[in-house]
Write a structure and sequence with these properties.
Oligomer: single chain
Strand order of the largest sheet: 1-2
Structural class: mainly alpha
Number of helices: 11
Largest sheet: 2 strands, antiparallel
Helix content: over 70%
Shape: globular
Order of helices and strands: HHHHHHHEEHHHH
Distance between the termini: 50 Å
Radius of gyration: 19 Å
Strand content: under 5%
Length: 284
């Protein structure tokens, strides 16, 4: 019994370490830290994404009752960036600054370390955030496709399609980034990596946990919201496409991945999932 309690406590610790690393949410002092724990905590990155997505969906739902869709979506995106500190958006900008031009691998890695933002990074931020906002505004207007049964004996009530999609996209996009930690070598200098434990590949078991939790989150969201299988399939397919495309790009240009590359993967995959869901909704 003590061994089971210890194992549960350790898994909770790993989740809280992942939460602390990727967000600004404070965690209890008992969590502590050891370098190998950060690498092990990668299995819970998708669940951290689910928490961030839930925060964004909650703000979107509340703001939609007061403001028009465009304003509500803007506030939702601000909320998720406040929770994460713009962690992934920073990686997106650094990656496009480094890989947007025709430079050598060594020069690209140098550019990634530069805290200043360049033209390619600025353009990437504007286009990706703008497209995400546009997709979410469109999905917010599609409420008839979703019906969430209430807990009481009342008729189901409609919720915007953007809410479940936002939650699933934040979850699966982090699973895509976690896959690259497993599949690709670290392209930079491990000795000077900002988070050295994440410069090491995660175990196959950790990757399985990450994807199983992702699929469970997606299935639960679909079941609770009465969404058809097509919604789930579109999201998973887009996540796989984002993972494969970003992984191939990083492998071709850098010979592996970096922390910034993982952030860019998360952002690009999230956008692909929103666009795929919007396409499915329009033609389903």
């Amino acid at each position: 019994m003590n061994e089971l309690a210890h194992a549960v406590r350790h898994e909770l610790r790993l989740f809280l370490i992942a939460l602390q690393f990727f967000t600004r949410v404070p965690v209890p002092a008992w969590v502590g830290f050891q370098p190998e724990w950060l690498n092990q905590s990668a299995r819970y990155f998708p669940l951290v994404g689910a928490c961030v997505g839930a925060a964004g969906a909650g703000v979107l739902w509340a703001a939609s009752a007061v403001w028009p869709p465009a304003v509500a979506v803007g506030l939702s995106m601000v909320a998720t960036m406040l929770v994460t500190g713009g962690f992934h958006e920073d990686g997106l900008a650094d990656t496009f600054d480094a890989l947007g031009g025709a430079v050598s691998r060594e020069r690209a890695l140098e550019i990634m370390k530069d805290s200043r933002i360049g033209s390619y990074g600025a353009l990437a931020l504007v286009m990706v955030l703008g497209l995400k906002a546009a997709a979410l505004v469109a999905l917010t207007s599609m409420s008839s496709l979703v019906s969430l049964p209430s807990l009481a004996l009342m008729s189901p009530f409609a919720v915007p399609l953007a809410l479940p999609t936002l939650l699933f996209a934040h979850t699966a996009s982090r699973a895509a980034a976690t896959t690259l930690i497993f599949a690709l070598p670290y392209a930079g200098d491990v000795a000077h990596a900002k988070a050295k434990p994440l410069a090491q590949r995660i175990s196959a078991g950790g990757l399985v946990v990450a994807w199983v939790s992702t699929l469970v989150v997606g299935a639960l969201v679909a079941a609770c919201c009465g969404l058809p299988l097509g919604w789930f399939v579109a999201g998973v397919a887009a996540a796989a496409l984002g993972c494969a495309t970003c992984g191939a790009w990083l492998l071709h240009r850098l010979g592996g991945t970096t922390g910034d590359g993982l952030g860019a993967t998360q952002q690009m995959t999230e956008l692909l999932m929103l666009l795929a869901t919007l396409a499915w909704a329009r033609f389903a």
